[in-house]
User: Fold this.
Amino acid sequence: MTVKTPSLLPDIFFLPEWGSAYAKQEKGKNEVFEFVTDFGRVHYQFVVRPIPIEVVGITYYDTITPFGPGGPLIISCAAGRKKELAAAFDAAFQEYCMDHHIVSEYVRFNSWVKNAKDFEEIYSIDNRGISMYIDLTVDDYFMEEFKSSTRQQVRRALKNNVEIEYDYTGSTVEEFHRLYEIMANRNNIPNHYRFSKELLAESFTLLKGKQFIVYAKYEGHYISGSLYVHHREFLHYHLAANDPEFFCVAGNSLVLNEGCRWGVEHNKKQLHLGGATSDELYRFKRGFTKTTPLDILTGKKIRNEMAYKLLSDYQLSRGAIENPDYFPLYRG
Assistant:
């Protein structure tokens, strides 16, 4: 059974269509596990990945949440019984994992929905950094959230006659992907975190009405763009794409300002910027918000100890593990 009403799910990363759009990125199949009792309900979306190591003729699998912050989510629960519900969910999912040869789980929890708190006794929780967001409920985000230097960048873009263009259908995905690849190459983004033109194009079909691209154009050229995604009260600066040749006209700042404007007009409460992989990116994002950053939390759990050890020992014996701190170890 799956959640029939999307409004029960607080953010886009919990929606089945999100999982369908991004399961390919994780090289697996999207699944939804619904756990229902007479006192509560848990929704859990994950990607099942085959482990490319066969042990005694059995193909094993592991799970990871689709790209973006999701994880198990309590939809409803009787007062004072969350711990009991989480434990019951864990027992049911343990049985599911054993039945489906699932060895381990890796969960990217949602920082603003704060679902890690409900499952902290189930998973081993790690802090992976911070996630920033802009509060769109203030009276004037431009004056109250943006730093003065950021406001100057937005004004500079306007003075330079940088123009804004929207794409709600994905008709310009090829142009967005061109800018995205420039940025990805400049920042040495690993292949695993790069998105193909085909995946981005398909996402506009699967997530119809849930995403759009905002571009900055200068003298007729696309110089900056952001793929925004949204559901209920949350708006996300999901993917950014920029040509550094045009940083001098501040198009990327204008694109984020436009995202805020759109969010306010459409009754969004928060615009999430995500984390930062460099000091430069951190300074850029931090210039748009004075809110306290949120923790990025992940969870991990071994569901089949014997199989996990067999797989890991086999990879260790072959010298195939480059990173012994990686989870799951057999993929290190």
User: Anything to note?
Assistant: The domain at 146-288 is CATH 3.40.630.30 (Aminopeptidase). The first strand starts at residue 29 and ends at 37. The longest helix spans residues 82-99.
